[in-house]
Specification:
Length: 188
């Protein structure tokens, strides 16, 4: 029979948690990607109307250029967010398996956390004013804005959970190293 200490059991649970949260972040990013494409394709006309209202339409010779500029800007923003999300998820899974996480993944996790917190604050502000996404006649209603807010809150919880699990694992590793050094010093 194998006897595991409480610390070993806790560390194993934290590693399992990192793997689960890492997979959750990857799945969440796939959802965000699909949702973004859906919003763009189903709401293209409304987005164009919103852009014309907010931007001096005379600066663009056609609706197509304005829409292409929007797609380019939002595409880059979305691409960076998706890459960051996959990077953090893959790093969490690696850490959960006992391997070293990818370079800078904790920093990127904090960036994603702040970005999602900002989205939550903006969503709460819109809902308090009774506005929906883009505040036009889009079919994305207030209830859909609430759903998006719920997804952002879920992402924040996952990212915080990831950071807490990662810190705890580092603390356990540090404690193990300390105990090993003291054991070696006693034997010497």
């Amino acid at each position: 029979m194998i006897h595991n200490s409480k610390e070993e059991i806790r560390e194993r649970k934290m590693r399992d948690n990192l793997r689960i949260v890492g997979k959750g972040i990857i799945i969440l990013n796939i959802w965000i990607l699909l949702k973004s494409f859906g919003v763009f394709f189903f709401e293209r006309e409304e987005i164009l109307y919103f852009l014309k209202e907010r931007v001096n339409a005379d600066d663009f010779s056609s609706d197509r250029r304005l829409l292409m500029l929007f797609v380019l800007v939002m595409g880059v923003y979305l691409l960076v967010g998706i890459i960051f999300g996959f990077y953090v998820g893959a790093s969490a899974i690696r850490e959960g398996h006992g391997k070293k996480g990818l370079f800078g993944f904790r920093f990127i996790t904090v960036i994603l956390l702040f970005n999602n917190c900002n989205s939550i604050l903006q969503g709460l502000e819109m809902l308090s004013k009774g506005q929906s996404f883009l505040d036009t006649n889009l079919t994305i209603t207030v209830s859909m804005s609430r759903a998006m807010l719920f997804v952002d809150i879920t992402a924040v919880i996952m990212l915080v959970d990831l950071l807490i699990s990662d810190v705890r694992i580092r603390m356990y590793k540090h404690q193990e190293a300390k105990e090993l050094k003291s054991l070696i010093a006693k034997e010497a």
